[in-house]
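Team,

Forwarding the record for the chain on the shared tracking sheet. I've put the sequence and predicted structure together so nobody has to dig through attachments.
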Amino acid sequence: MSNRSPHADVNRSAVLAQLGAHGPASRADLARALGVSPAHMTQLTRELLADGLVVELEQAPSQGGRPARMLGVAATAGSAVGVKVAADHAAFVEVGIDGGVLRSAAREFDASATTALADLTEILAEFIAGCGSQRLLGVGVGVPGSVDSQASGVVDSVQLGWAQMPLGATLRRALGHPVLIENNVNALSMAERLYGVGRAHEDFVVVTIGTGVGCGIVLGGTVLRGASGGAGEIGHIPAVEDGPLCSCGNHGCLEALISEGALVRTARERGVIDAGDGIAALRDAADGGDAGAFAVFAEAGHRLGRALAGVVHTVDPELVIVMGEGTAAWPHWAAGFEPALRSALIPARRGIGVAVETWQDESWAQGAAALVLATPFDAEGIAGAEGELVRARLREASVN
């Protein structure tokens, strides 16, 4: 197992992401962009060159000193497939080693069907069959629920109706590729750590709003999983006594009050939207200045802000990142969220930053792919034997 620190490993991933997103750069440029010392960057790039993940290109034009060698991502480094599993559909992406999306697709999928595992395996195999000439390093799958470990991949999910579902073993046996399974918000958090605004922070939380409410917690650069892989389930924080029934079976959970389904239910009850209308109609009404629609979102933002104040006090992050389908209506959420969050925090924490990420549907799947892309730099062995298989494929790709 590698003896590199988790911090160094994430920086190695960040170098690849920087080169992939912005093109070739010198070691000095990379050090400035990623906020590390020139000496540390020299060590990081030495390792990446030795592993065949980056290559030296032409020299940069000299401005009086010694010409700098430019670095770029190795073209043969391989790709990864990411999968988002939802109750009614599955989304797929193929990404390069730098995290950039090469192609994407979505298919209908019924998680409650007795043939769910076979159906998912079939549509995933079809997507993998279309992968390009690059070596496929592995498959990452993000699910809404608890996962015992990335390598084993046994899933418990209220949203999917799954209990002890052997997803990892089933997919590995059928596909013949390394497969890593993780809670979808944890996977998003790793993607943020590697490629997003979280790259500049060691301690942050990722909060997702949409069909559900989730939270990924990153402390010291590591995503916290908890004893059973279910850390960060803030959607099931008890918010009110004897409130609406939640999908988990309890009453008054945060998710039962502010998920998309809950907002639609509230809006219908108040006559803000018609019985057949959904979240898009509610958002359109708020965008059009409807006070009742605006109030539904603002109240949800208020509840979210107060709940997150408790999370901030508990884990002391540097930053809160808000993501998910619900961010399409964030200006309406923010009216209630900001005052509720700030007023509920102790004075020393009230200046915490809140970043709202632009959302695309494929972001969930891209987060799942990050499970594979992070594996070659996994200093703690989180990915287990599957991680070893990914690293072996990476070594093969780098010499071919």
